[in-house]
Design brief:
- The complex is a heterodimer of chains A (242) and B (274).
- With 242 residues, chain A is an alpha/beta fold.
- Chain A has nine helices and ten strands.
- In chain A, strands 6-7-8-3-9-10 form a six-stranded mixed beta sheet, sandwiched between helices.
- Chain B has 274 residues and is mostly helical.
- Chain B has a single domain, classed as MetI-like (MetI-like fold, Orthogonal Bundle), CATH 1.10.3720.10.
- Helix content of chain B is 76%, strand content 0%.
- In chain B, helix 1 packs antiparallel against helix 10 and helix 7 runs antiparallel to helix 8.
- The radius of gyration of chain B is 23 Å and the shape is flat.
- Classes of the chains: A alpha/beta (242), B mainly alpha (274).
- Chains A and B meet through helix 2, strand 6, helix 3 and helix 5 of A and helix 7 and helix 8 of B.
Chain lengths: 242, 274
């Protein structure tokens, strides 16, 4: 079967420094891929290339058969690819419900009743239907991130990207977000996750990838990568974070 | 969002200083009340000249308010267009917007009003004469219209800078989140960035409104019968410079203080819960 994400030899420069030095990756439908690596390794930049929030200088990306080459195609891909950010990026001037219904209405063209129904369903799924009328500023970090996941899911994406979704959270709030991500993974959502949550990677991921210095260093099943890495670079990184 | 970069705050923890919107009575209303009381006292107990003069300048107050409010509405629109223009990635658009702002900011408002009232109609008339367009040849400037144009054109430049700063103050993640949901750049601006930017810029916009209210007195130089002009007429007929200009000043003060309070009230009503 054709991979739902096909990334070929992506290169990206920030000025004269090469942030991505030729990264290729295929992701199959329903697969969960976790990317780890030291800060500055290019892992977030790489993830953000998949929905073209980050421009890349060389290479090609095809998502669900659509090449990321024109504004029209990019917008088309973005409606199919949900993204969850480290800093949540909820819209602070809108209520939780409005955060989740806005894009459904203006991008998907759903009516108010339909988008509210979808939003409430998803709020139940992430466990905070009672916060529908709250503003983001009134929620804890964990609750905000769960709303952000619901907001992305409301567009019925085929793929979800997670950019360090738990890095900005208090320790006791990490699990509630990981639980939601676990549920998604079990339901067969295609996910690319930049995260150092080894527990989540072991339980949910089909593949783990170590990136360093703008390149993929090693790629294996999470159990193999975390317990039996081949590369020295992987061993030294894991010895510092585990 | 300002909290994101503060290492002393745990994510999700309320920011200590800004968490609670200020509640209760806005004490500056007392100053408004004092000025109002002073005006009422003067009108009631010193009807000559104050009551007489206030009735004389009442239509001038209406003109001042009409010119200010009309210009303000136009300025809000022109400022947004020029502010977005300066932020545009298109070099032609951003250059036009920048030249407009830089040129207009460097010329005194009074000179601009004179130019609109005296020079602009002459230009139209000579174009009319040159190309035989009767409507242009017989063009006569409407003083109020030219006054509003002059103020709008000038303040639009200042307002565009306020808009620009407001839009740039919104964290980049907001645009990214909107775009990641498939919104176009225009939709993200319309629904996410501008609504937040407008809240940020409310205090400086309020300042601009108060400045416009005061600077509208300059239109008295081009035969607009505003508060200043009507006041000057009354004063020169009755030879009462001290009482007369004090009353004009008090009426302006009353209006500006009131406007400032309204802005503060709106600011509280629309504050984003953080």
């Amino acid at each position: 079967m054709e991979p739902i994400i096909q990334i070929r030899n992506i290169k990206k420069f920030f000025g004269s420094t090469e942030a991505l030095r030729g990264v290729s990756l295929d992701v199959q439908k329903g697969e969960v891929v976790v990317i780890i690596g030291p800060s500055g390794s290019g892992k977030s930049t790489f993830l953000r290339c998949i929905n073209r929030l980050e421009e890349y200088d060389e290479g090609s990306i095809i998502v669900d058969g659509i090449p990321l080459d024109s504004t029209q195609h990019i917008n088309q891909v973005r409606t199919e690819v949900g993204m969850v950010f480290q800093q949540f990026n909820l819209f602070p001037h809108l209520t939780v419900l409005q955060n989740i219904t806005l894009a459904q209405k203006v991008v998907r063209g759903r009516d108010q009743a339909e988008s509210e129904r979808v939003a409430m369903e998803l709020l139940v799924k992430v466990g905070i239907p009672e916060k529908a009328d709250a503003f983001p500023g009134q929620l804890s970090g964990g609750q905000q991130q769960r709303v952000a996941i619901a907001r992305a899911l409301a567009m019925n994406p085929k793929i979800m990207l997670f950019d360090e979704p738990t890095s900005a959270l208090d320790p006791e709030m990490i699990q509630e977000v990981l639980d939601v991500m676990m549920t998604l993974a079990k339901e067969g959502m295609t996910m690319v996750v930049v995260s150092h949550e080894m527990g989540f990677a072991r339980a949910a991921a089909n593949r783990a990838i170590l990136m360093d210095n703008g390149l993929i260093v090693e790629e294996a099943s999470p159990d193999v990568l975390f317990s039996n890495p081949k590369e020295e670079r992987t061993k030294s990184f894991l010895s510092k974070v585990l | 969002m300002t909290d994101e970069n503060n290492p002393h705050l745990l994510p999700g923890a309320p920011a200590a200083q800004n968490a609670q919107p200020k509640r209760g009575f806005d004490r500056w209303w007392i100053l408004v009340a004092i000025v109002a009381a002073l005006l009422i006292y003067l009108v009631t107990f010193k009807p000559d000249p104050f009551r007489r003069m206030l009735l004389f300048v009442a239509d001038g107050v209406r003109v001042t308010l009409m010119v200010t409010v009309t210009s303000f509405v136009l300025v809000m629109v022109l400022g947004l267009v020029a502010g977005l223009g300066r932020l545009s990635k298109n070099p032609v658009i951003s250059t036009i917007a920048s030249v407009y702002v830089e040129v207009v900011r460097g010329i005194p408002l009074l000179v601009q009003i004179f130019a609109w009232y005296f020079a602009f109609p002459s230009i139209i008339q000579s174009i009319g004469a040159r190309f035989h367009i009767p409507a242009f040849e017989n063009y006569l400037a409407n003083p109020v219209g030219m006054a509003i144009l002059g103020i709008t054109f000038c303040y639009g430049a200042y307002m565009s800078e306020i808009y620009r700063a407001g839009i740039q103050s919104i964290a980049r993640g907001q645009m990214e989140a909107a775009r990641s949901l498939g919104m176009t750049h225009f939709q993200a601006m319309r629904y996410i960035i501008i609504p937040q930017a407008v809240r940020v810029i409310l205090p400086p916009v309020g300042n601009e409104f108060v400045s416009m209210l005061k600077d509208s007195s300059l239109v008295s130089a081009v035969a607009v019968a505003d508060l200043t002009r009507r006041g000057r007429e009354f004063i020169s007929q009755n030879f009462i410079p001290i009482e007369g200009w004090s009353l004009v000043a008090l009426v302006y003060l009353m209006m500006t203080l009131f406007a400032t309070r309204i802005v503060t009230w709106v600011e509280r009503k629309t504050r984003i819960v953080r």
